[in-house]
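Below is how a single chain appears once it has passed through the pipeline. First comes the sequence as given, then the structure the pipeline wrote out for it. We keep one example in the README because the format questions we get most often are answered faster by looking than by reading.
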Amino acid sequence: TLFKLINQTLSAGWLDGFMVFCSSKLGWLPLYALLIFLFFFKQPWKLGLSRVLLMVAAFGISDSFTSKVMKPYFKRQRPYMLESNHARLPETPHDKRTQFIDDNRANYGFVSSHASNFFAIMLLAALLLDYKGYKKLLLLVIAFLVAYSRVYLGKHYPLDVFCGGLVGCGIAAGLFAIYQRLVLPRFAG
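Resulting structure:
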């Protein structure tokens, strides 16, 4: 029911392009560049480098765990694969809907790697930059938008993105604990 609400009832043609952007991997490159800049801004270069490496590790762990462990284990079909869902598939640039579907036929949906990856990266960035309040909220809203877009585009069920978000937050928290214990003490003082 929640899938159909997001994918069909709350969908609108004018929103399709924005949701496709939210799900794109390359569209967020300027944000990644900004985060890398902030990691180094007024910081020792070794500390900045350690933060960048942690972000790469967060992405790698999140993406590998969800794609190579969880999806093959649960083998949950994506919503658009079941005709009974009548999933609405917004047009992607150049109307590549067929390719959009065919590319993912062998790829399962539980949990969402996009949601996991973005929550891992955005939460870890907020923690590394010691963001609180609206700055931290902004990064988490970006992760939420990415997760929401996956349901909107018919690629995942809401539970897929919710659990993916939890996995990502767990990875971010674990890596931040390692950072506090092993990296920060070297720069204290």
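Helices lie at 2-9, 13-23, 29-40, 45-74, 97-102, 113-128, 133-152, 158-187.

See the next section for the split statistics.
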